[in-house]
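Quick note —
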Amino acid sequence: MVVDRSLTASSARCEPSHGWISWPAMDVLFSAAPGGPDDADTVAVGLFEGEQAPSLLPSAAAELLGSGEARTSPKALALAHADGRRWLLVGLGARDDFGHEQARVAAAAAAARAREISTDTLCWVVPEGADAPIAGALVEGTMLADYRFERFKSKPPEPEASPGRLQRLIVSGAGELEQAVGSAAIVTERVNAARDLQNRPGNDLTPTALGEYATALASEIEGLSVEVQGTAGLETRKMGAFTAVAQGSDQEPALITLRYEGPGASGPTLGFVGKAVTFDSGGISLKPGPKMSEMKFDMSGGAAALEATAAIARLGLPVKLVTVVGATENLPDGSAIKPGDIVTAANGKTIEINNTDAEGRLVLADCLCHAVAEGAERIVDLATLTGAVIIALGNTYAGLMSNDDELAEQVRQAGERTGEIVWRLPLHREYDKLIEGTYADLDNAPEARKAGTIVGATFLSNFVGDTPWVHLDIAGSAWELGRPYVGKGASGYGVRLLVELARSFAG
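Predicted structure written out below.
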């Protein structure tokens, strides 16, 4: 946290970690001054149902509430000019119904209006009586909503079609809010970095490029180390399942292993495991053409695991963490695996590959084995694994399956606090029958097509042993989430959840 003496406020600037991040930086500051410093050209003030207008509002702004132009219903917006500034009145609904998620939504609505009126510096006044996480949520909602991916635009968009970006966000309030504001800015920077990774096309973000990105990131963050291995490393580790997926592509796979141990870390070693199939054609079991372009998003779990690790290290959380990301393409050339092939995973389990489009579980199988071998004692994996989870839960929840009730509940609670909510689906011994192979130990894609999301998790459970483990199927959440603060495209889902989970282990 850097002290800006000119504002007598605390500033946490969200600098891009290197040139690969395409969205511009936003200054995020905390100020104890009511309404923030005078150079904030727009001030956002929330209004609760049945409550008096905040006393800091100038009369010109308060009159809008009396006339009915300003309303207290959620996301209602009204604009007034007074004291040389613009005052943006934002409806928050009933105070009893206002929580962290509602704060993110309100912040996104305010950010959109602020851009329309060419705001340079937006000041959010934290509602009186709100807690520190509300202040953090206002930061999250603003930064997430302000994100744009324009890396490949040959010309900048016309101002009329794309309103200007916010340069600064100032959060003004009383009480101990500074740390929450600074932490939220750091974490949300990493969420937007994950969205950048997700949005990059497959010809740009190859497995090698993702490995290079992880290497550059680790070089810039104190306490974070990385190892990246290609085909030779996979073969040395006897990762036959991961290698089988990669062999259909000319691109070298990347096994990315990140390690972090924060100051004073104690407790179990956390393990994050992410699927990063940078493009998934389905292999020989080719996907239908429509929307295949979206399969660049099949690396979303890896992006979330990587950027959550970066956020945890930047925050200096006192935890021990090993993160494993398996990056590859899944393509159908002459070397590609075929339906009916049998491969052997790192733990010796043999697998019939009856559908090459069920490749994510093959990559994760070996990555989970690797995480266990690297000392992970509590594991969470994230993957865009099955379309079945979208049928079951839509885009609202990610699917959660686990072999450990305590860890599952910790993940669920972390999701509730961050708005990245999860719904637990069962694992039962009867599901084991569905993945039994005819000619090998396991079948990667049983023809019965029953309980598709659960079957995927049941398959993965064979590669964690007795280690407490949670599987998150984020196929419905990683993009097109539809929340007002992320809109269409990549959502960065899972970064905030994993950071919050790490905080729960940090104590």
